[in-house]
């Protein structure tokens, strides 16, 4: 998941992966080895040119691909650098990018990528296979302190390297025009891993020359080049004329203005001063905008792989009692909460969002039934309810949602005190054993790094996450389910795709029997763009990029 | 004078040291572990421990503080946990914006406050006086964010006279500076009024009148330089108030100053940035007081003599 | 010049420069109008010095401000009469026209040279300003310098660039005079121009004024409460009381044959230097022979109450960063004296000579070095706790009786305070004692429930004395205790103090800058200058045969309330 | 007293407003038409938008469908409580440190005043933010934080006044009579500082209400659903265009109350200190 450590004025706007079809991305790995990079044919012709303005509230942190891991810099890094694999814009469909072609061994343990010839970094040097090896090793190297190291855990030599016992990843070898990866175990998600930002290719000599400043003066081989960065004010990106795929991107440049209140950004957008309000439409403005005649041209409303939930700490009394947890699940009026967020979400009943492979649309979950909830509490020996604490981040609308939950809980006699804190403090409380009985995940909610159900389990519901400083804030650990999860993840045989999917799906619905979460809703992402901006909605709520700067264009 | 300056400088340095120590202790006690936040969700306990070690967070508080001070003396404010860059350039990049805003705000305060104060003092007890005094009360009683939102809505969003947000041109600074200035002007008006009334009752003003000077000359040449002294002392204190005010104002107007930086850093428990911003604002306050202390003698020769 | 008894024919005498006729001024108060000046009339002839004399509140200053058109508009207003300058009525003249006269035709100087100059402007700016406003800019600077030379200021070129705080009080008053005369006004109004100055400086300034009057041909209205100054300066005198002129006459007849009772009273109250010549002690005010209430000793001067040896007090030396003091300045150095029971030591000197500091150090109120023996105990280095019993032996009375009383405490409580502190008596006993003390100082017992601001200055000083007496001290340090009082009140308070000394055997360390008062009160006199004792001896020795030139200078500088013996202005 | 009131309409107005606010706070349960934290189904439009003032909801509803009028009434309790508690503490600390530092100039006074300077140099809001984050915000913590931020100013003023008092002759007279330090401090210095303390306490309440609002605006104030004027505005600030009543009414309440306290404080200063009459 991406850290959304920032003050989000609206619903959690997080980098999302939109999965339009249920076709498993893994399948692509075994498609004919030469997949031409290309685009979903847009409805209208893209005219090249145009300079656009994008706004964000928060500072852009580093643009170093080995480090950057938040939803603002994610899409910029995507466009500054290229990777072996990428996605078709607006879809979760994997395509080779820097790789001209690739092969996978039948046992799923060896991947060979042949690189495009003549791809150049923006400093003029050609990209060679050694750069790929260097870049991934850099992301894994503990000295980098990169948050993405764990994704590469399947590559041979990972453990030695991350423990500091080796100088590099023994599993990556290169020759004149190709890179070979040897895995220590089958990883059904490995091609996705090579498409995430941490696998971006960087030029070693520049990284070493710039040292710590590389994140502020990035050099890559992507569609755009960072021309200028006025810290705290704006970043200017210009089109990389030498990008190895001709005709990409469309716009000549985009300027990211920082420090703009989302509300102000939308007001400016309506006046035509801004083209994309990066932080989306704040709730206050949402209804008005959707009702206005301009709405059709300005509002992009897309689904994302998001679930908002309340964690129930299984190590804190009385939440350690499954009946209590079930009772709480039945107490929440999710329809009302959805109304409070102006209908920008749909009620949820399981951890996985509807568009995620493995989502069980027949699963009913716990229906809203306060009477039954009270009964369950009585059975649990708590006829008069109990007192507890509900944590939430302190940015609108999270405290409001927490209050709605609080009122629902009060209806069955559960008195929840709200602690609305800065995000960092909530995360710290969640990662401390016995500290936070309940946490509303809003603003920090789980969004998959890539469209695979496995990504929704490990850190947030698996035993490995239930440690101090971990992200499994329910402190939930079911050994049986854990075993089934591991089994499902090693099913890398393409023939078993459906089976794997079903296995994962069952894991998530079975988790609900233990009720460590109250899944509340799946939120849609609302983006505001100026009317001159063209293209389908997908490229503004791109499942892999948030905003796909490569694909957007000016009408 | 030089001795005074040296003394005040050392005093200021000690105050900053105190501020650094207090902030350090406070932040150390914050219930959030930067290492965990940095490591991200897919991190193992080993990674977290590694990061903690690399940041020196596993060392005793005193050692950490000692290192921090050592670096500080070399102008090194440490590295931001989240942004992975040196803090000093981050703050330096944003400081001009905040300083510009503060300067504009203070200028507005002074111009509005001093002229209204003089006006009220001259029309003491009259309608103008009462009006000015009432307005000054409304000024100091109004929540800053309310004014910020109101000005934004009226003058930028509705009337479109000024840009809504951003930085760079003179037009951009008007509304944020007005938000800071209009409210603060109330204090200045009150202070200047009261000291002006005081000064106008002084013997030397009577002397000036006995010399047959014009009222204008008496007010501007004789009374004002004396009456302005308390207002100058106020500027030093004011900078402290402004440092708080800019957080709100910068947030509303998207002003790229250190207020926004501070707010983000607090949300992210980015201790080096919080430390840096605290020290810089404390330094601004201290320098402001210092400048006020040193400006007063320029106007008042009596202080010059010590 | 003498006033002719007949109605003044226009041709017989030069026409007055300034004529005030039936001037009436009212004050606006919440309760309505109240009269401040009533039917004030006088005429100022060319080259004449007219003194407006009177005690505080008599309307002297209001008169002068009315002439200048400087009455505070909000509260005071001329409601009748006329002020004619060269025949032109100034009452109701528009501000613009009035402004031309101020500083141009009428100059004015004030009591406090310290505060009457703008502290943030150079002397040059303040001087040239007036010249420029009234007479154009041409040679303002040269004329300013000429004016400074005319008032005999040392190093005038340098003074021009200086700020008021860099000048001494005397120099500032000279600058004020230079400023007031810079446009050669016809009339100079001097409102208590020397009251705030040391006696020697006063003599110089008075002399200067006389000299300049001749030189510039200016007529002077001199406002003063000091009959000595009147006698030294005036051609004619108008005595004011409660907003009226009670008597107006040439100066010699006024002093030799005052017609009005009030004038006589006023003159009688003025202490005259040399009045005690040939005697050893203060005048006896009680008819009976000395009998101390305490009984024990019946011979005054046996017991030494206070002995000070080699006393030094350091001030200043700004604290450095670490709280240590830097190089200190000596405020008092090597002062020694002794004071016996029932006697008064007059400590005299000009401002800044260290008199008050000596007084406070003698009571251990400020840190000092040297030896102070108070009632037989050396107090150096004593803790406040150890000092406490000694406090009963010695008390202090200050210059400003209002400031030395807690405004939030009733008079009774204030007088009882020392008794409470020392745990003397119960509530009822204390109340009785307070009543007795109040009666003792000439007030009544029912005053106890009132608050200080309800009393007049003289009464307040009596209250302070009562409080000082509460502990039946042997010694009272009186620090300029009568300086703030009007002459008539001053005389009565001094008499009270003498009477208390006679009946209770009090010893006084009497600190004053006023030679006449010192002469009246003291048995012994110590003259201080710049922190040191320059002369110390019996009163008679000091006043009748001073050894030191400085002492002689001090005595010579005192204005004599006798116009026939003018010595200050005319001597040099 | 009544005459004084009549002659000072501003004081009268201030007192009336304060009385109204106090009454509203005290009798909130009687006056309020709804529970302050009741999220009513009919309090939101079908799309989830807050409702404008109407017969049913006199000041409209907030974004959770709660009655704004009821929340403002209960919010007055919180805001006033914080104002009084925070200022009480701040004035007490300031009085203690200021008098001690002013009376015992020298090492003790110097140290205390350097510490006060340090607190003055500390960016107040930053301190408040860090402390609030550190201590987990609650009503009392917010009050405490504000007190800790505000005392330094009171201490400075008290210090200056004590210094000038300590040099007055009547204090010297007390010492000459043999009065101990405690007696002088308690009986002769403190009573003179009471008006200052009252005035600053009153003026401070205005600042405090504003600071609480600012803390809430930044999301670190009183915890929801407990209403305070600050967090009511904070929760709804982004609706200032769509639902202006959500910002306007609480904003006006804060403004009016702050104004009232300022007016009263100023008038008190004039009345208790005749020498200051007519000054700022």
TrEMBL record, chain A:
It is found in: Periplasm. Part of the ABC transporter complex GsiABCD involved in glutathione import. Binds glutathione. The keyword Signal applies. It holds the Pfam family SBP_bac_5. Belongs to the bacterial solute-binding protein 5 family. It comes from Ancylobacter crimeensis. Keywords: Periplasm, Signal, Transport. Residues 94-465 form the Solute-binding protein family domain. InterPro entries: Peptide/Ni-bd, SBP_5, SBP_5_dom, TAT_signal. The keyword Transport applies. This is Glutathione-binding protein GsiB.
From TrEMBL, chain B:
It comes from the Bacteria. It is a multi-pass membrane protein. The chain crosses the membrane at residues 12-30, 99-122, 134-155, 167-189, 227-253, 273-292. The keyword Cell membrane applies. It holds the Pfam family BPD_transp_1_N. Keywords: Cell membrane, Membrane, Transmembrane, Transmembrane helix, Transport. Residues 95-296 form the ABC transmembrane type-1 domain. It is found in: Cell membrane. Belongs to the binding-protein-dependent transport system permease family. This is ABC transporter permease. It comes from Ancylobacter crimeensis. The lineage of its organism: Bacteria, Pseudomonadati, Pseudomonadota, Alphaproteobacteria, Hyphomicrobiales.
UniProtKB/TrEMBL annotation, chain D:
The keyword Cell membrane applies. Residues 76-265 form the ABC transmembrane type-1 domain. Keywords: Cell membrane, Membrane, Peptide transport, Protein transport, Transmembrane, Transmembrane helix, Transport. It is found in: Cell membrane. Pfam families: BPD_transp_1 (PF00528), OppC_N (PF12911). It is a multi-pass membrane protein. Belongs to the binding-protein-dependent transport system permease family. PANTHER family: D,D-DIPEPTIDE TRANSPORT SYSTEM PERMEASE PROTEIN DDPC-RELATED (PTHR43386:SF1), OLIGOPEPTIDE TRANSPORT SYSTEM PERMEASE PROTEIN APPC (PTHR43386). SUPFAM superfamilies: MetI-like. It comes from Ancylobacter crimeensis. The keyword Protein transport applies. Coiled coil: none annotated. It comes from the Bacteria. The chain crosses the membrane at residues 12-32, 80-103, 115-134, 243-264. This is ABC transporter permease. InterPro entries: BP-dependent_transpt_permease, MetI-like, MetI-like_sf, OppC_N.
